[in-house]
Specification:
Elements lengths: L12 H5 L18 E3 L9 E5 L1 H7 L3 H5 L1 H7 L11 E3 L2 E4 L2 E5 L5 E9 L2 E8 L16 H17 L5 E14 L8 E12 L5 H9 L3 H15 L12 H25 L1 E2 L21 E2 L24 H20 L3 H25 L9 H12 L6 H8 L11 H4 L12 H19 L5 H11 L7 H12 L4 H9 L35
Antiparallel strand pairs: 1-3, 2-8, 4-5, 6-7, 7-9, 8-9, 10-11
Helix pairs in contact: 5-16, 6-9, 8-9, 8-10, 9-10, 11-14, 16-17
The structure holds adenosine monophosphate and magnesium ion.
Adenosine monophosphate (AMP) binds next to loops.
Length: 530
Amino acid sequence: MLGMLETLQFDNGFVRSLPADAETGPRRRQIRDACYSRVEPTPVARPELVAHAAEVAQLLGLTPADCASDGFVEVFSGNRLLPGMDPFATCYGGHQFGNWAGQLGDGRAINLGEVVNAGARWTLQLKGAGPTPYSRTADGLAVLRSSVREFLCSEAMFHLGVPTTRALSLVLTGEQVVRDMLYDGNPAPEPGAVVCRVAPSFTRFGHFEILAARGEDQLLRQFADYTLRSDFPHLVRGGEPIGRDHYIALFAEVCRTTAEMVTHWMRVGFVHGVMNTDNMSVLGLTIDYGPYGWLEDFSFDWTPNTTDASGRRYRYGNQPGIAQWNLLQLAQALLPLIEDPKPLEELLSRYAADYQSRWQAMMANKLGLGSVAHDDGELFERLMSVLQLAETDMTIFFRELAGVDPQVAADKLLECVSDAYYQPEALPPEHREAMQGWLADYAGRLRHNGITPEQRQQRMQETNPRYVLRNYLAQLAIDAAEGGDYSLVHELLEVLRNPYTEQAGKERFAAKRPDWARTRVGCSMLSCSS
Ligand code: AMP
Ligand code: MG
């Protein structure tokens, strides 16, 4: 019945190399001297496949026939285990909204095992497959609403070229899950769902933090050594003994890949929404798609997460700085292994400089410049503030900008980008003036560009997506899926496979947020409830 799925090759390095909690099963508890607990997914009533990502299946060596089999939905709902699977939940801690939160862990994620295929290693992880020792007071489950968001966004981000965990499948469980969506005392049943996530590893900053916070220095070293050999093999040559320099190199690489990831977020207008240290991957992958959002109206102050509305800690413009704060927490966790804070401090300041130069290079690509000239920084910064003076759709603005002809008269330049405005007829005069000035300077800069107009347009169209997972589009797909119609989930998955290419007949997926979505829950306001 499980057919070819049984040919998946498992090699479970995490459980083989690291100490397990002595107890198995989901009884909630604090775990000591262990990195994980064995716990099985809870079987579900009537699993039904909503969608799957064929490219992710292929990474694992699964064929389209495998994905269409009954076995597929049984396995990826958590109802059946394949030979070689050894399910476990891992222990981690984290700083939530700036405060140490103690033990968190995989509260509703269960790792099935590590698949080895075509020279790569992939951990399969079910999200929403039932309680684990780390579920605290919660149920270990997930609803269709948040699972559609996780599934579609993981894949959309991948196709945008943003480092991310992947999503293999989205399955309805056939059971209801009660959620108080806005945390306002109105709990209601929603359809339950399970997503199978896939990544080289799901190791988070918080895995290191919990061991350091507990003073489990021996285990911290063992975990760091395991992580180096498994996730950073290029940093350890052969079987050489691991020491201080390797831990420093590990931290340097996390700083680098984190800067790279955040630069991509800023490029595409993605706001994670919950950049707690337990939601930061040591591989610099975007992880844990919760109350994230996409910038429509360009604003550094925007946060999609209602839980974050008062402090706006995780707002768009704060993401690079928060990533550095999170790296500082990781550095503190690694300190017992390195003993000297100096190299870590140096790397943290290097992160800031590195991010700044990555951001500038990224902006040069967004604007279609051949390279960063010495006074381009001012041009970039000024655009950021001018854009915030009127309600401007970020995605449309940068696509429109590719059409700007530097030979056009200065007073006609504004028309080139007018489609990006939410209220083009009511532009604040200070914006109109500032944007006209900026566009004139940009046109001037283009006349001294080192590349041809064709090269410029190509660069811009490869950097500025036409299609992103607009908040209201995800919500429309959720509404339809809750009514049993999965076609919009499939169509979005398909359109978002080629986010930089104009797709005939798909213009509506590139449209500005409609007015009804301005205040609708799920479109502009999201909570952590999922
Ligand atoms: P988050 O910041 O939303 O990624 O989650 C913080 C912690 O809460 C993690 O340890 C999650 O595993 C856990 N968690 C979130 N939702 C649930 C749930 N419904 N059941 C069990 N644990 C959960
Ligand atoms: Mg999380």
